[in-house]
UniProtKB/TrEMBL annotation:
Protein name: Nucleoside-diphosphate-sugar epimerase
All residue ranges annotated as the PRISE-like Rossmann-fold domain in the record: 67-356
Cited CDD domains: 5beta-POR_like_SDR_a
Length: 356
């Protein structure tokens, strides 16, 4: 892979940072693009640029000729119409800037289960509930969705420039990152740490369907492995793939496993949702005290948690799991224990002084 030059768009996020490490280990020369790129990943070459500024992109890539481009980021807006406008532009602008170089061989895009469940404005609501497990051949919903808009930008650029592509649809990515918009693992770790400090129970925030139903999630390392596999496997080119850990579970089991890890009391579903966004409201000072007492790196609660997104996932009115037969049939055989995903993340958060 010594002649392959990878560009990870969103290299500071859960998916992007894990993918950058996977690519570096596989021998790619790897660049990480972000507005404020970190340099803590050994071997990663950071690029600071705003994807909405084509002139800045032209300057940033004047001497860089990526062979592989991996989109792992998005920007949250106030409406789905704005999500479409902005997030399609992120993809379009970069591929237009790279187009004259004729260097790009493959482009990968990470989206997710909103492809099947609908955008934030209509997420998992009556009338838009798919049959589960969700499968890649399910048709698009008759709804505006920025995932669809991003895919269409990839398809158009591939037709213009002749590169191959892959689309990856994880289910709730679990991995290490701070300040991420959709971070269930860190959100639950911080919530559990607050429960331990205050003596309050670890209360299930979501629906009965999620509490009792079968589910799966996607470890960031598993997602990274599938993305690299698809880039390197000709039979996987120009296709979309679901990706999850390979096991299934019920939250009425996993919730207790998480509580046991932190040594706290768990409370399950008891007749209605108890959203984390409300539960964590007003706990800023509690977290700041926890951070001070334990010499933690981030005392600002809101830079760590994303309760709105955790509430969306855990509040769905149906059980949701993904079918991975398509990539399995083509030779992708990686597997990850979901319980281990959470425990390994919690251990990393402790090691990095994010939680006590």
């Amino acid at each position: 892979m010594k002649n392959n030059i990878a560009l990870v768009v969103g290299a500071t996020g859960i998916t992007g940072s894990s993918l950058a490490k996977e690519l570096i280990a596989a021998g790619y020369t790897t660049y990480g693009l972000a507005r404020n790129p970190h340099t803590h990943i050994e071997g990663l070459h950071p690029i600071a640029a705003n994807l909405l500024d084509e002139n800045a992109l032209q300057t940033a890539f004047e001497h860089i000729h990526p062979t592989h481009v991996f989109f792992t980021t998005w920007m949250r807006q106030d409406s789905e119409a704005e999500n479409i406008r902005v997030n399609s532009a992120l993809v379009r602008n970069l591929l237009q800037v790279l187009s004259p170089k004729k260097s790009v061989q493959h482009v990968a895009l990470v989206t997710g289960l909103k492809h099947y469940l609908g955008p934030f404005d209509a997420y998992a609501k009556d009338g838009f509930l798919p049959l589960t497990p969700v499968r890649e051949e399910h048709p698009r919903l008759n709804l505006d969705n920025f995932y669809y808009a991003q895919e269409d930008e990839i398809y158009a650029a591939a037709q213009r420039d002749g590169f191959t592509w892959s689309i990856h649809r994880p289910h709730t990515v679990i991995g290490y990152a701070v300040g991420n918009l959709m971070n269930m693992g860190v959100t639950l770790a911080v919530y559990a740490s607050i429960c331990k400090a205050t003596g309050e129970p670890f209360v299930w925030p979501g629906s009965a369907a999620q509490w009792n139903g079968v589910s799966d999630v996607t470890d960031a390392g598993m997602l990274a492995k599938q993305i690299v596999w698809a880039a390197e496997t000709p039979a996987a080119h120009n296709q979309a793939f679901n990706v999850a850990n390979g096991d299934v579970f019920r939250w009425n089991w996993l919730w207790l496993q998480i509580a046991d890890y932190f040594g706290i009391e768990a409370k399950g579903f008891e007749g209605g949702k108890q959203p984390l966004e409300q539960t964590l409201e007003g706990t800023e000072d509690i977290w700041q005290n926890i951070a001070t007492l334990n010499n933690l790196d981030e005392p600002n609660l809101h830079k760590l948690v994303s309760p709105w997104h955790t509430d969306l996932d855990l509040g769905r009115p149906i059980e949701v799991m993904t079918d991975m037969s398509k990539s399995r049939a083509l030779g992708f055989t990686a597997y990850q224990s979901t319980k281990a995903s959470f425990i390994e993340l919690f251990e990393e958060l402790k090691a990095q002084r994010i939680i006590p």
